[in-house]
Fold this protein.
Amino acid sequence: MTSPTHRFTPEELESLPIARAWTIPASWYTGAAFHRIDLEAIFERTWQCVGDLSALTEPGCFVTAQVGQAPVLVLRDKEGALRAFHNVCRHRGGPLATAASGCVKALTCQYHGWTYLLDGSLRGVPRWDRVDLFDKKDYGLVPVRVETWQGQVFVNLDADAAPLAATMQGIAERIAPVRIDELTLMKRIDYEVGCNWKVYVDNFLEGYHVPYVHPELMKLYDFRRYQTELAGPYSLQWAPIEPGDAPYDIRPGDCAYYYFVYPNYMMNILPGRVQTNVVVPIGTDRCRVEFRFYYRDAKGEAAERAIADDLDYSDRIQREDMDICALVQRGLGSPAYDRGRFSVDAEQGVHHFQEQLRESYRAWSTRAALPTSH
Ligand code: FES
Ligand SMILES: [Fe+2]
């Protein structure tokens, strides 16, 4: 597949300290070429969360996902190891699995029935007499890197990427004693949002909008102490929280933690529960946000009530964010707007993310400029 062509200007890609920096140009959120550029430059180069280990407990159980432009399948093999493959048959590109998840004994292509074992090797090829120069050994499924962190399953299409642990370094220590893999996944909810995926991420990365967009959430925080910390691959926003109307068992000293791991993974950590978001680009002005809700207390009437309240609360906040993000997408398409500036006080996370974007685009431009080998 040919790459989209696009020339970034040196000025657009220049890194500047936040006090002097511009936000990224509006065309990066609205330009038709950017959907493909982002898939290539970012989503096919980074660790992408495709689900939770609880769906992959038994041999033959699998989940599927779209990662950049690649359909991918993650499964547990007969020996109990986790494996990931491109979900693309070596015959003529058919799919091995079309369901979001399931359990199988072997992978049978849904087009003409080629069958692969759980280790990816090609086993059965119907009606294949008289084919010359063909060795099944050369037609196994193409593997993809897969790693896990606290029960979260990530894949990476880039063979040269640093291990997932390098990306997540320091987070486990900081959120301890919380461990996501000790909580119970109770709910998955997907929202489709009418904005470019970067608008949704920008919005997640600042508390600047909270007083204006989320009056209810505002009551939860000690907002004067809301702050942002930056690390290489991720950022953290956190604030002390106070008992009030919110459906949480809040003790003195409790905080809310909001992690963003570049480019599209978020963890929202409140007492007794963690909620993860994965932002998936669908088109230039559309994305899907996958919410997974994990709870410490998952059984009993009181827990069920608390979970229902949390889901309602989260849904209200999410709808406020979706509405403002769709309106911002419209504003970014206006001929009156090109780019803006940052609050040094309140938008360090957005600036950090946009610097990461620039870094990805610089690397993409360099790769695109290299002569391709044949
Ligand atoms: S494409 Fe898979 S069997 Fe033909
Ligand atoms: Fe928000």
Notes: Residues 48-156 form a domain with the Rieske Iron-sulfur Protein fold (CATH 2.102.10.10). Residues 301-332 form the longest helix (32 residues). The first strand starts at residue 48 and ends at 52. The chain has two domains: 48-156, 171-351.
